[in-house]
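User: Here's a chain of 743 residues. Predict its fold as tokens.
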Amino acid sequence: MNQPSFEWIDAYEALAKEVRKRDTPEGREELLAICSECLGKDDWTYIDPLAIFLSFNRSGKNSGQRRVQQIRALMDAFGITVPFDGDLSGIPTAYQQFGIISHNRDDAEKSWRLFDLVVDQGNAVLDDSEFIEAMNQVAALNGKVNFNDLTKILYMLNPHVFFPLHLANNALVKTRFGVDNQIIRHSAEGYVNYLHQLKEATDEAFWELSNSADPHFSDIPEQQESSEAPCNVSSRQGRNIILYGPPGTGKTHHVAATAWLIANGRDCSPCALRSLSHEDEKAAKAWYDGQLRQTNGQVAFTTFHQSFGYEEFIEGIRPIIADETSEGESELTYRYEDGIFKSFCKRAARPIVLGGAEDLGLNSNPNIWKVSLDGTGPNPTRTDCLENGHIRIGWDDYGPTITGEIDYKDGGKQILNYFVNVMRRGDIVLSCYSATTVDAIGVITGDPEWHEEYDRLKRQRAVKWLAKDLALDIVDEFNLPTMTLSTIYRSKMSVGDALKVIQEHNGGDSISEPNDKPYIFVIDEINRGNVSKIFGELITLIEESKREGQPEAQCTILPYTKERFSVPSNVTIIGTMNTADRSLTQIDTALRRRFEFLEIAPDPSLLSENIEGIDLQKLLEAMNTRIAALYDREHLIGHSYLMGVDSFAELKNRFASRIIPLLQEYFYDDYEKIRLVLNDERDGDGFVVRDGLDERYLGNLGNLGNRDAPLTINDSTRWLPEHFMAIYGEALSTARSAETGEE
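Assistant: Prediction complete.
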């Protein structure tokens, strides 16, 4: 086998210098034009130098050939003449797209600052405190940046200084030199420390080290192994997790960190959650919130309740108000609508469009539309549309401009809304030839236009036909329903199937690759819904071994739409369960078998040890010990009930408004048991007191004998510090002498 030449090092260095020269307003405009031409990127508003390097080093089918072509195109555009034989040995490809390419000027400026420092400082960059600050800023950009991918970019810019992190490299360095990537903790300081240790351990060039790692691992999601073996719960995709515990333990709070750890291929066990640094927690929350805000983000959230059902979760029939009739009355019609989980699975299964597909004009999230070109079968309109690159529809009597004031007496309101307002450039259209066959597939390239030169069907949109002269039976081929007479509607065909047809028809390179990014579906209060009713037949499909692409993969025909459906293997389901709401022993057995249960227990160590002499850690521990003995572990008190307590007044308020009512609920107002939990044996001034009854109003009840007055909760203004200290068994005198030092 030929030895690698590593000529890419000089080529990448030359590319970096050319990009650096263009860090001016005019230069960035030129750079944007060059990258649009060479990399097929026409959606970059704010050019990002780091994203340039990552864009031609992504993983995927035929990625090697594509990468070399793009590198050479850039070298030609910049006039770079250094030798480059196309050998990319030692460069691990990136698992996911760098996320800060075009949408935010501030983010792009932070990337430019880091890029400029790396190129300008050369081998001395690690000694520059500005570099530490700049790398941390980029790594924390709203949770958008995969830290390992960031190290790969730095390595491409200067492999003499930086080492790329991914599973194979991490394992090689740890095994051969004992340098553990766990010291990094997603921080620039940790990464610099890691690089210094690696430099001290070996004189071997970083590119040779990277090249000697197992290449099988270059294109898979990076993982950071936990250093605590007993807690090493893998964060593989496609698993199902339930975070369970009593109220107030932070289950919902931990969802963001769990999702973030899974997305980054890291251990998400309870001890890993507890050991997260403050910076990691901030990054996790930022990433999680950012994904939830995105229409097509990698995270979705819902809450189960008794009214939640299959129709909301998977699919159902929804009523809609149709166009007005000739009598001026609205008609009520019904349509099938995807539920939140089905829509999310479709999003996760949507393939990643490669650079070649972007050249076709597809947008990042194309819808697929069925379009009838003046009915079915051969006709002059169909011939005109396919030969001249457009689609046409009618309702000419409404005129060229569609406004909200039109009286849709002849119908067409929904179709015109689709054509004018909903269809976007980059969406895919299917030309309907018959009820079952499609004769052409294209991509919309223009906005709605009015063409007076036609006798009829004057509304037009430009289309680039990607595959024509087809005889594609979508019913037999993809198990889709027959097409209806409606002129325009969303097709049930998937983007992946459409791209496969285009690729096979044109006989070219792959224009898409499977989406292996992790997607996380969060179900809060999962035990409060009727699981059998909500999941239906999907209770089997969510099993890891039954997911799409697995050896035992299964799919089902959905009852309403008759679509074939399976759960993608890159979808992870995270549920939360408050054990005080419903005992774990009552959980649906089918749910228990298909989920891993991770306990989130009360953590007294998070509380203060001294609030005016009161140790909150001991206080919570003592109460929970007694609750476990009197009731069970599922009804403990979480640490959040006492988080943030900074004064005795606030402590009394928490007990009066939250903890005492919770104990009353747990023990059904059995005040004797509440007394035991609070270690309260006083009859006059404790938490629980006798309710002094006014004998003037007892009447004949006064003859019932000398019964004890009923117990009730004492006025919180009468609670004293010694009452709280007594909960964990310390006398007031002992506590006060410890404070003053008196004997």
